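User: Can you predict the 3D structure for this chain?
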Amino acid sequence: MNKYIYSLLFVTAFLPVGVSAATSNDDKGLQIARQVDLHDQGWKDMTAKMTMELRNRQGEQSTRAIRVKFLEVMGDGDKGLTIFDNPRDVKGTAFLSFSHIIRPDDQWLFLPALKRVKRISSANKSGPFMGSQFAFEDLASFEVDKYRYKYLRDEKVTGIKSFVVENYPNYKYSGYKRQIVWVDKTRYIPLKIEYYDRKNDLLKTLLFKDYNQYLGKYWRAHTQIMKNHQNGKITTLSLSQFQFQSGLTEKDFKRNSLKRAR
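Assistant: Here is the predicted structure, written as structure tokens:
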């Protein structure tokens, strides 16, 4: 639930402004990533409500009600707080994430049953988040320097003209060898991401749907669907009640805020 999951964002005369035609595929991929980042700067803070639906291979479902808060941090990665409101077995669980550009992200999980805050180690960020098909590393904000890039091609997805860019994580503990991202050529927002595991097999596909624009600039997907091709499980995130620039500060994202999250 980074700017793309909360939010997971981003040759010729028809190429959008900011992406040069006279570059290698690596340079062009980097330019596209920079435009994705540039198009989503300045929102300051954001809150939303979210429903997480878990579905297994047999079609059995369970649902969780969640609140999320985000703080934009200029010059570093963003901060996020995720609070589970129900069902009862997860009520009060809270997750705090400090994304970073270069160094490993800081992440903590408060488990009310144990009454303690657990730090998520760098080596464990490829593990599943709260039984969903999202990994802990999927929940960090998108930062350009987290990846190396390669432009692959132009292609339509769901009828929308897109850049297709391959991302290679710089993070040595990443659970992914690479990601393939379809980026809307006009709005510079992600439409689809394929995740390949360390063996380079297709692991998951994430679809972004039902985009709405806020403050006349910022696009947010109200539906995000993550399908795991290896275990047949699907997690759907449905977001609503977005609010921007409500005055959140660093104080709202302290470690002790995890135990107070209600």
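The chain has one domain: 25-260. Confidence is low (pLDDT under 50) at residues 1-17.
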